[in-house]
């Protein structure tokens, strides 16, 4: 049985395709694609931490797969620039502050436009699910930081998916993935500001107010930059 990430955690998927997906054949493309998707999520939520050596043996045991498809997946991630070899040791690649600022600048241009385009187009049930999850987070009922990060990814993806442009959504996703490779020390409590911004953004998109949606996204990403710089100054 392989373990596949579902964003907020992991879920088991039968290898015989009993869940309606293609079978997870050992060493086959189906398994490698699923491993690639899961490891991406683990990188984005820092479940695989920055600066910690990646052990193929430990990962293969943890994910319930052999090392052959795992090696193929890791080579793929290395080719995409998400992991690297440092003196022969495999680890998550860290991007520089300069790279992060460049990525955030491009993200701001695209995500502000995407938020405006998504206004009035996001499904009501998606809005309801996201609002409920954000309110639980704000109430302190979600304490796992990985779940907080996963919810952040889910919200931004939902907006991008509703923007009407697959090319824009894919480009934003690539930029977000790379920007997550920049690490800063955590600041307790600042997630509440982020949640409040997400709720304002979600409300603007849900009501179809394009101008307010763009404004809310711009404000949110500007605060992301301010928080990052504030953390760096406290080092």
From TrEMBL:
The keyword Phosphoprotein does not apply. InterPro entries: GntR_C (IPR011711), TF_FadR/GntR_C (IPR008920), Tscrpt_reg_HTH_GntR (IPR000524), WH-like_DNA-bd_sf (IPR036388), WH_DNA-bd_sf (IPR036390). Residues 1-23 are annotated as: Disordered. It holds the Pfam family GntR. It comes from the Bacteria. Keywords: DNA-binding, Transcription, Transcription regulation. Residues 29-100 form the HTH gntR-type domain. Coiled coil: none annotated. This is HTH gntR-type domain-containing protein. It comes from Pigmentiphaga daeguensis.
């Amino acid at each position: 049985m392989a373990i596949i990430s579902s964003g907020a955690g992991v879920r088991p998927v039968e290898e015989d395709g009993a869940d309606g997906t293609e079978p997870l054949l050992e060493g086959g493309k189906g398994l490698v694609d699923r491993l690639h998707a899961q490891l991406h999520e683990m990188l984005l939520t820092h479940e695989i931490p920055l600066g910690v050596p990646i052990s193929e043996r430990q990962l293969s045991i943890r994910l319930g797969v052999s090392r052959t498809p795992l090696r193929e997946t890791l080579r793929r991630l290395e080719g995409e620039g998400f992991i690297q070899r440092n003196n022969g040791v495999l680890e998550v690649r860290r991007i520089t502050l300069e790279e992060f600022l460049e990525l955030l600048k491009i993200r701001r241009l695209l995500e502000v436009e995407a938020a405006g385009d998504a206004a009035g187009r996001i499904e009501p049930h998606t809005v309801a699910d996201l609002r409920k999850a954000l309110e639980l987070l704000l109430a302190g009922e979600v304490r796992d930081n990985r779940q907080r990060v996963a919810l952040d990814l889910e919200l931004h993806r939902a907006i991008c998916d509703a923007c009407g442009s697959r090319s824009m959504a894919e480009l934003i996703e690539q930029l977000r993935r790379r920007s997550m490779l920049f690490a800063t020390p955590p600041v307790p409590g600042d997630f509440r500001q982020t949640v409040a911004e997400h709720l304002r953004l979600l409300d603007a998109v849900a009501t179809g107010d394009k101008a307010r949606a763009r404004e809310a996204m711009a404000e949110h990403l500007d605060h992301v930059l301010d928080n990052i710089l504030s953390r760096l100054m406290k080092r």
